[in-house]
Amino acid sequence: MSKGNEIDDLISREYEAGFVTQVESDTLPPGLNEEVIRIISGKKNEPEWMLEWRLEAYRKWQQMDIPRWAQMPHPEVDFNAISYYSSPKSKKNGPKSLDEVDPEVLATFEKLGIPLHERGKLAGVAVDAVFDSVSIGTTYKEELAKAGVIFCPISEAIKDHPELVRKYLGSVVPQQDNFYAALNSAVFSDGSFVYIPKNTRCPMELSTYFRINELNTGQFERTLIVADEGSHVSYLEGCTAPMRDENQLHAAVVELVALGDAQIKYSTVQNWYPGDANGKGGIYNFVTKRGLCAGVNSKISWTQVETGSAITWKYPSVVLRGDNSVGEFYSVALTNNFQQADTGTKMIHLGKNTKSTIVSKGISAGRSQNSYRGLVRISPRADNARNHTQCDSLLIGDRCGAHTFPYIEAKNSDSIIEHEATTSKVSDDQLFLCRQRGIDEEKAVSMIVNGFCKEVFKELPMEFAVEAGKLLEVSLEGAVG
Amino acid sequence: MLIVKDLVAEVDGKTILNGISLTVKPGEVHAIMGPNGSGKSTLANVLAGRDGYEVKSGEVIFQGHNLLELAPEERAREGVFLAFQYPVEIPGVSNMQFLKASVDAIRKHRKLPELDAPAFMKMARDKCKDLKLNPDFLKRGVNEGFSGGEKKRNEILQMALLEPSLCLLDETDSGLDIDALQVAAEGVNALRDGKRGFVLVTHYQRLLNYIVPDYVHVLAGGRIVKSGGRELALELEEKGYSWIQ
Lengths: 481, 245
Ligand SMILES: Nc1ncnc2c1ncn2[C@@H]1O[C@H](COP(=O)(O)OP(=O)(O)OP(=O)(O)O)[C@@H](O)[C@H]1O
Ligand SMILES: [Mg+2]
Known about the structure:
The structure holds 2 protein chains of 2 kinds. Chain A has 12 helices and 23 strands. In chain A, helix 3 (about 50-60) runs antiparallel to helix 8 (about 180-185). Chain A has one domain (about 5-475). Chain A is of the alpha/beta class. Helix content of chain A is about 25%, strand content about 35%. By secondary structure, chain B is α/β, with parallel strands linked by helices. Chain B has a single domain, classed as P-loop containing nucleotide triphosphate hydrolases (Rossmann fold, 3-Layer(aba) Sandwich), CATH 3.40.50. Chain B contains 8 helices and 12 strands. A 6-stranded mixed β-sheet of chain B has the order 6-9-10-3-11-12, with helices on both faces. A 4-stranded antiparallel β-sheet of chain B has the order 2-1-4-5. In chain B, strand 9, helix 6 (about 180-190) and strand 10 (about 195-200) form a beta-alpha-beta unit. Chain B is globular. The two termini of chain B are about 30 Å apart. Chains A and B meet through helix 9 and helix 10 of A and helix 2, strand 7, helix 3 and strand 8 of B. Magnesium ion (MG) binds near residues 41 and 170 of chain B.
C-alpha cells in the first residue's frame, strides 16, 4: 500500500449540508448598478437614509480595487454575474410569522439541526435563521424582550430602532474600509441586530444561522451587536451552503461595539461548502469582522472554527480603545483538498493597559494552503499594553502548506509583545501508537487534531464545542499522511 | 498461541531480521535479550504491524490467524499489545479520552457492549490504584510532559486496561525506579493467568527476578543465537554477549 494512494483514498470528505432546497424564490437578475440597490432597499421598505447610505457605499466601492495581497490564486469574481438579492417566496413581503414561511425552508433548518418552531426550538439558545437574503424567523423573542434585549433581523432594526442602527452602523467598519466591506455596505441583505441594554446579562445565548441556497446568489449579511455599559452577551454564528459546481460569493460584515465594562463573546463555526475533492465549486468567503472596545474595561472575544469555503479571507479584529480593555482571538482553521485560507486577526491597541491574546491553530491536509496573517499594533499612547500570540500549524500529508505572517508595530516602548509559533506534523509514531491500541486511522487523526485544537475548543460554548469536534471529524474524513 | 517461523524482514532494503523462529504457548513468558541494534525492537514492531518494515519471508501465526495479513489496529483488537520502548506524546488528547477510545474499539471487536463514561472512569481509576499511579495521570495529555519512567508506567496502565492476550514489552523496565519496577512486574504477573503469552525485551536480568521467565533467548544479528531457561540471563549478566558466538 503506497502512501500517496492512501492519502488520496482517505481525503474524500463528505459534506453533509450539501443538499439543495426546492423553493420558489424571488431572485433579482444578476448584475449590480444603482437601480439594483434601489430595488433591494425598496423590497425591504427601507427609510430614505438607509438607501442614501447604501448608494454612498456603492459609489465608494466603484472607486476601489480588489485586494490582492493575500496569496490566494482564484479565478476573477465577475461581480455582474451574481444576483444580489434572493428570497424564498412567501405570501406577503417578508414572512411575518413562521406560519407564513415555506414549509420546505423550515424543513431545511430542521434538517440542519436548527428547529425553529415552538416545540422543537433549542433550549437556552435564541436563533435567527437567515435563508439566502432574508431572515426567516427569530425564536425566544418575547423572553428576550422581557430583559430589554433586542435581537432581530437587521432589516427590522432599521425600521424599528433607527436611532441605534444609524448611530452604530459603519462605526466600526466604515463603508470604504475595504473592497468587500464597501460592496456589502451597498447591497447587504439581512443579518442580525443585537442590543443589550446597560447592566444586563443576556439571559441566553444568541445565535444566527446562515444558509445560502439559491444558485449564483451572493450572500451579503450584515451583523451589528451593541453591548451597552456593563452588559454581557455570547453570540454564535453558523453557516452552510449546498454543494454546487459554481463558486458562490459570501461577503459579510460584522461589527461589534462594547461600551464601558461590557463583554461580547462572538463564536463562529463556519462550514460553507468547501468545493469538491478536485477543487471545483465552493464558497468564496470574504468577510470583515471587527469589534470596538469603546469603553474602559470592555472585552471582546472572537472564537472561530473555520472548516468550510473554497477560499477564506477573514481577520476578526479588535480595536482596543478603552483603557484596560481586552481583546481575544481563538481560531481553528482547517483546510483540506484545494481549500485556501488566509485568516488571522488584528489587535489595535489604543488605550492604556490594554491586553490582547491570540491563539491560532491552523491544520492543513490534502493540497490545501493555510495562512495565518496577524497584526499587533501598539499606538504611542497605549502605555503598558500587552500581547501574547501563539500560532501553531499542523500538517497532514506532505502536499499542503502552512504559512505564518505575523506583523508587529510597536510604537510604545512600555509594551510587552510575545510571539510563539510551532509547526508540527501528525507523526507516523502517533498514528501507530493509536492503531496499536485498536483505534482506526481516521479516528486517530481526528483525535490528534482535536487535541491540537483543545485550547480553542475550550473557549466555545458547550454545545458548540461538541459540534465543532464532530465537524472536524467529518472535514478530515481520513486525511492521513 | 504465537508461532513465528523463519521470519526475515527488511528496513529500507537492509535485512534486520534474519530468520527468526519463536513459539510462545499460552501462559509462557519469553525474555529476549541481546546487544543494542540486534533487532529486538524490530521484531516487536513487525509483530505489531508497524509500517516501514518489509517481511521478505517466513510466517507469523497468532491464535490461528495469519498475523501478517492484518492491519495494526486489527492485530490490537485480536489481542496483540506492544508496550513501546519510546512512547510518543499526543498533546491535548487526555489519557482518559485515549484509553476510552482504545477500550471502546477493542470491546466493539469482541462484541461487548460499550462502557459508559462513569463505568469506564471507575475501571480506569481502579487500575491506577492497583499500579500505584496518581489518578491525575488520566487527565493529562497522552505522555505529554511525562518523565521517562512515567511514560513506561503509562504503558503498563494501558496493558492492564486492555487485558491483551499477547503482551510484547519492549524494554519497559528501562527507566523505571526500583519501586516502579516492582509495581510494573506485579502488573504483568497479575495478567499471568495461564492463558496469556508474554514476550519481554530487556537488557537487565533484574527484571527477571520479578517476572520469572520460562525461556530466555539471545538475539544477535537478527537471529536467535541461543535459548535457555532463567539461568541463561544470569550467565549473560556475568559474561556479556561475546562468548556466545
Ligand atoms: N528505519 C530504519 N532505517 C534504517 N535502519 C534501521 C531502521 N530501524 C531500525 N534500523 C536498524 O536496525 C537495527 C535493529 O534495530 P532495533 O531497534 O531493532 O534494535 P534493538 O535490538 O531494539 O536495539 P536496542 O537494544 O538499542 O533497543 C539497528 O541497526 C537499527 O539501526
Ligand atoms: Mg530496542
